[in-house]
Amino acid sequence: MIEFEDYTFQELLNSPLLDEYKAFGLKSKGRDNGWCKSSALEWPWGDVKQIQDIINQPSLSYDDMIEIICIASRKTREQIMTETWHLVFKFYNFVVEQIEFINEREKQLQYDPDVKEVNAGIEEFAQFGWMGTLYRLAAGDPLKYDPICQLPYHDIFITLLIQKQDIEFQKKLISQNNARSG
């Protein structure tokens, strides 16, 4: 069994035991370490979206891991590199847990377009990812992007959920009105 040292994260990255430490570190319980707000629902929406983009990649490098931690904690790369390795892994695991929670929540926002929308090419908007959502929230005004990205994730999520419900209501209402007049 390995006796774990209190390496800094930088020392660990240069250690021949990196793989063993990584395996142990990724199994450790996530913890915020006081580095950020304890719920991703309170994090800036833009930060959550950036972290999702990185985490949802097929594979992650240590640079990706550091970038995720920098975004979530607001610490610099240099600060992360001087932290104790196990605190870095615990915080990373905490962020992953938070993003998994957010991903699960966002399933409520999924939208099944109708045949007319599909025929009109609604799938073309998928190429823009969350930037398409930001564009719509900002009503096309790029000067509003930064203020929107700084809003708490929960505020934007609720807004999108209300918008989705409103669209579904409007579609049902139009359908009912068309059925009555037809």
Task: Give an account of the 3D structure.
The chain is elongated and about 75 Å long. By secondary structure, it is mostly helical. Helix 4 (62-73) packs across helix 6. The chain starts with 8 loop residues before the first helix and ends with a helix. It has helices spanning 9-13, 18-27, 45-55, 62-73, 77-82, 85-105, 115-120, 130-137, 145-150, 153-181. It contains ten helices and no strands.
Q: What's the tally of helices?
A: 10
What is the percent of helical residues? 55-70%
Alpha carbon gap, first and last residue = 77 Å
Unreliable stretches: none
Measured on Cα atoms, how large is the radius of gyration?
21 Å
Beta-strand segment tally: 0
Sheet-strand content, in percent, reads under 5%
Attribute tags:
single chain; 182 residues; mainly alpha; 10 helices; 0% strand; elongated
